[in-house]
Amino acid sequence: MDKDELDSIMNRLLIYAKSLTKNLSDAQDLTQKTLLKAMEREEQFDGKHIKAWLRKIMLNTFKDDLRKKKPNNFTDSNIEDPAIDDQGASVETESVMTDLENCLENYPEREKEIFRLIGQEYTPDEIAEDMGLSAGNVRQIMFRKRPELAECLAGRAA
């Protein structure tokens, strides 16, 4: 892995951490914890899909931290669905993002994550690698769901 690839992975991890924590400082802490856990568990890595492996470690670390902070209020249902970080976004962008989240509400988790990553400007190939899917599968999901998503968004804009 070269420096550019490592920088790209680190940036994407930080973006994902910000979408979970909604706070830059907490996101940086979560990213650091994730990397430490990955180094401790290096022997468990199969050599494929490093981004997906790191994202899974990050999500599990985030859940563990929440369980420790709020053991009585914790449920997995509100964690599997991290909102897209819209800090500093315009009111219009914020509204569109809220509409998008509402339209994605009934989608399976995998499809929600694909559209969130598209919103974060991942390419279908990067999404496929991150999620351990084929690029063709990602494109097929996007192709199949875009009309439905567009119709939902148009209905909310009206």
What does this structure look like?
With 158 residues, this protein is an all-alpha fold. It folds into two domains: 82 residues, Rna Polymerase Sigma Factor, Chain: A, CATH 1.10.1740; 73 residues, Arc Repressor Mutant, subunit A (Orthogonal Bundle). Helix content is 71%, strand content 0%. α2 packs across α3. About 7% of the residues have low confidence.
Topology of helices and strands:
Layout: H1 3-21, H2 24-40, H3 50-69, H4 91-104, H5 109-119, H6 124-131, H7 135-157
Mean pLDDT: 78
Alpha-beta classification: mainly alpha
Distance between the first and last residues' Cα: 48 Å
CATH topology of the largest domain: Rna Polymerase Sigma Factor, Chain: A
Radius of gyration computed on alpha carbons? 16 Å
- Strand and helix order: HHHHHHH
Provide the helix percentage. Answer: over 70%
Q: Using the alpha-carbon principal axes, give the shape.
A: globular
Number of domains: 2
